[in-house]
């Protein structure tokens, strides 16, 4: 994202082909995606016609009204979810944000490069872009509240047939609330378990609605296919005029859940999502809508008894079984947007745009499948509040429709920038894209916004609250980082202390966690000034989230020196994409120590090798992978680990420390190339330090607005950001380290 570009110091990230999944894996994921991704989109026939004809649109003998609605539904589903899911991307698309220097040099003269420079030059444009992206994100989160509500409530509304008209409302709300509580209670089991549990339900539901659709087509109106002509859209709007335009907010609901196709990409692959939609979901939905239209076109009088909707077109003999399947499918349908909400909040948190929440990884095989307990229960409470407050499908549909179309409209605007900035395509292509899709979405947006007082105010209110939280968090995080940059200690201060740093150096590794990617953090000088003793090996560690989906293991670390070699000060930047999973503390410690050892082994004096980065203080950072990704590099053996299991003994030699304290540590290095004596001595010291143990030095910051700040800034920093920082979770890194080895250093930040 443009607004974070100034905060990231990137190493050279090379493009690599993404490993293809086997067909067995793809088909398995496609099967699971039916239960997680497409449940919501599949249940839209429950409420589309009911919400559309709630605008006092009367049916005529020519059936122009029902044919027009069917035509709108068909072309909306075809142009939005189907057109966007067709194979139009490459496997390398996920790495488009991983820039290379060659790519930058070759694009300096095109429009995209000039547009990028303009965005980076003017802070006001960056803020506008940030707010636009946050609005779209907040609307998706709001959709996570409204879509489960309308899906479950619409399914339960089928109880209007066995109960008297004045009594069924007293049954719908309690039953809907019980189902919603059950739904959110299932989330901690994880996407893969829920997917296998829910997929058979969705398949049964799709078969059911398509079979009913085919029955109604042949039984009532075999010529309903004529309504697929776009000419009927024109006739519909011409005849119904303002009421028809307002009814577009109900038609919009036919693509409810299509955004989950893209929000859930962290849970499933692109190919699996495409296969499930084009082969199963799309044809079933079209048959279902055509069947409802065929029945309604020959039964105009039904509107006088019951609201026009899905259940009126279901034959009486199978209405109860269909009601049960519909309720189960509605539960599944809600799963799609809930899963998407988990994913988008995780990615926002990784980019510094949302306070940290607990992430539970529910699958050991698929890295993107997560569960957020706090978000889960918050969504549940909001869903119950909307259900009890509205108790009406019409107002729920108005609210959900505005949330959906606003998110899509923002996505279209941002996508036009991606076409120019990331894909380096013609600006005319971007304009054509935003004109085509934007005009469709703007039409639906205007029809949804006009219903502000009839329920559409809910997503605006929810989005406003989430927008304030996200913007305050991002603003406070950015100001804190800027203070760190301005307050960092110069290298001259370090050189003036000498190799001993003017303090007592004790055995062990001191791991200083910092947000800085260059320079010496103020926390270090603050610590040694008040406690003149430190470890023999010091590592300035930065855990950084970069704006790309994944960072390959062989590009995980950037390692370099801080000061002369005899100081034994190192900098290590661990880079993670916003869809990557950080390892547990034991594996991370081993990878970290191995990366430093590999840097020591491969370092060449006064030589700038490929894969290095120069920082502003003259530090050279070398790209080093994890130990598992570098089979020819140094390996770390601890305790009773067997070397022969890792590599052949003929290819390796051991460097052993002179003493064997309580933990036995060895480095296993390749025979070639030869290591000089200085490097061998440095590796011995690193082993001794590792045996003595690691100590984690964490900064505990108190952020305050500096004197002379505006009243608004004082409110945002002293109250808003401070409240969020105190009540949300610590960084993932600090949560995974042993508290017995942690030392917190308090500092006050005046920003």
From TrEMBL:
Keywords: Ion transport, Membrane, Potassium, Potassium transport, Transmembrane, Transmembrane helix, Transport. It is found in: Cell membrane; Membrane. Residues 508-749 form the K+ potassium transporter C-terminal domain. GO terms for molecular function: potassium ion transmembrane transporter activity. Residues 29-494 form the K+ potassium transporter integral membrane domain. It comes from the Eukaryota. The chain crosses the membrane at residues 128-150, 170-189, 196-224, 244-263, 275-298, 318-338, 375-393, 399-420, 427-450, 456-473. One of its GO terms (cellular component) is plasma membrane. It is a multi-pass membrane protein. InterPro entries: K+_transporter, K_trans_C, K_trans_N. Potassium transporter. Belongs to the HAK/KUP transporter (TC 2.A.72.3) family. This is Potassium transporter. The lineage of its organism: Eukaryota, Viridiplantae, Streptophyta, Embryophyta, Tracheophyta.
């Amino acid at each position: 994202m443009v607004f974070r570009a100034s905060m990231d110091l990137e190493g050279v990230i090379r493009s690599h082909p993404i490993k293809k999944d086997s067909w067995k894996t793809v088909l398995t994921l496609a099967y699971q995606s039916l239960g997680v991704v497409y449940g919501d989109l599949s249940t839209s026939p429950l409420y589309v016609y009911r919400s559309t004809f709630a605008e006092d649109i009367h049916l005529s003998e020519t059936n122009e009204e029902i044919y027009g609605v069917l035509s709108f539904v068909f072309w909306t589903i075809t142009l939005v979810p189907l057109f966007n899911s067709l194979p139009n991307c490459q496997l390398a698309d996920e790495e488009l944000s991983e820039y290379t220097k060659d790519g930058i040099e070759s694009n300096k003269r095109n429009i995209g490069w000039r547009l990028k420079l303009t965005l980076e030059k003017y802070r006001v444009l960056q803020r506008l872009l940030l707010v636009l992206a946050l609005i779209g994100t907040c609307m998706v989160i709001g959709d996570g509240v409204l879509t489960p509500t309308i899906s479950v409530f619409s399914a339960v509304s089928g109880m209007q047939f066995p109960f008297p008209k004045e009594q069924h409302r007293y049954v719908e709300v309690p039953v809907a609330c019980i189902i919603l509580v059950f739904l959110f209670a299932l989330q901690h089991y994880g996407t893969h378990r829920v997917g296998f549990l829910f997929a058979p339900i969705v398949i049964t539901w799709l078969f059911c609605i398509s079979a009913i659709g085919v029955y109604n087509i042949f039984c009532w109106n075999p010529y309903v296919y004529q309504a697929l002509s776009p000419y009927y859209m024109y006739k519909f709007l011409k005849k119904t005029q303002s009421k028809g335009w307002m009814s577009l907010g109900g038609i919009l609901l036919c693509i409810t859940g299509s955004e989950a196709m893209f929000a859930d990409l962290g849970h499933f692959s692109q190919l699996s999502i495409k296969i499930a939609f084009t082969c199963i979901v799309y044809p079933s939905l079209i048959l279902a809508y055509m069947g409802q239209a065929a029945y309604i076109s020959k039964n105009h009088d039904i509107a006088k008894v019951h609201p026009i909707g899905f259940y009126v077109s279901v034959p009486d003999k199978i209405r109860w079984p269909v009601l049960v399947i519909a309720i189960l499918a509605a539960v599944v349908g809600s799963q799609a947007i809930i899963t998407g909400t988990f994913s988008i909040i995780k990615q926002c948190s990784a980019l510094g745009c949302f306070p940290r929440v607990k992430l539970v990884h529910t699958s050991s095989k698929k890295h993107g499948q997560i569960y957020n307990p706090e978000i889960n229960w918050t969504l549940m409470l909001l869903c119950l509040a909307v259900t009890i407050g509205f108790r009406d499908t019409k107002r729920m549909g108005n609210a959900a429709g505005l949330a959906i179309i606003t998110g899509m409209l923002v996505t279209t605007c941002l996508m036009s920038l991606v076409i120019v900035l990331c894909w380096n395509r013609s600006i005319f292509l971007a304009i054509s894209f935003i004109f085509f899709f934007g005009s469709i979405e703007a039409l639906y947006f205007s029809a949804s916004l006009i219903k502000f007082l009839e329920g559409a105010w809910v997503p605006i209110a929810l989005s406003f609250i989430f927008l304030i939280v996200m913007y305050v968090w991002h603003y406070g995080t950015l100001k804190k980082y800027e203070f760190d940059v301005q307050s960092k200690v110069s290298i001259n201060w370090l050189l003036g202390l000498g190799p001993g740093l003017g303090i007592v150096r004790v055995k062990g590794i001191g791991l200083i966690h910092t947000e800085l990617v260059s320079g010496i953090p103020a926390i270090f000088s603050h610590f040694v000034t008040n406690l003149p003793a430190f470890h023999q090996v010091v590592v300035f560690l930065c855990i950084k989230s970069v704006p790309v989906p994944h960072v390959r293991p062989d590009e995980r670390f950037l390692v370099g020196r801080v000061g002369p070699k005899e100081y034994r000060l190192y900098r290590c930047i661990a880079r993670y994409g916003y869809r990557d999973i950080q390892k547990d503390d034991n594996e991370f410690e081993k990878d970290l120590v191995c990366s430093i050892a590999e840097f020591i082994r491969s370092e060449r004096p006064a030589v700038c090798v490929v894969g290095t980065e120069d920082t502003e203080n003259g530090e050279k950072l070398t790209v080093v992978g994890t130990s598992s990704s570098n089979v020819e590099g140094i390996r770390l053996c601890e305790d009773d680990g067997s070397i022969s299991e890792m590599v052949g003994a003929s290819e390796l030699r051991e460097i052993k420390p002179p003493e064997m304290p309580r933990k036995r540590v060895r480095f296993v290095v390749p025979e070639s190339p030869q290591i000089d004596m200085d490097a061998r001595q440095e590796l011995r010291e690193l082993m001794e330090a590792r045996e003595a143990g690691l100590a984690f030095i964490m900064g505990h910051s108190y952020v305050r607005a500096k004197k002379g700040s505006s009243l608004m800034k004082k409110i945002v920093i002293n109250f808003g950001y401070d409240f969020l920082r105190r009540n949300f979770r610590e960084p993932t890194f600090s949560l995974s380290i042993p508290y017995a080895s942690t030392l917190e250093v308090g500092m006050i930040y005046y920003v």
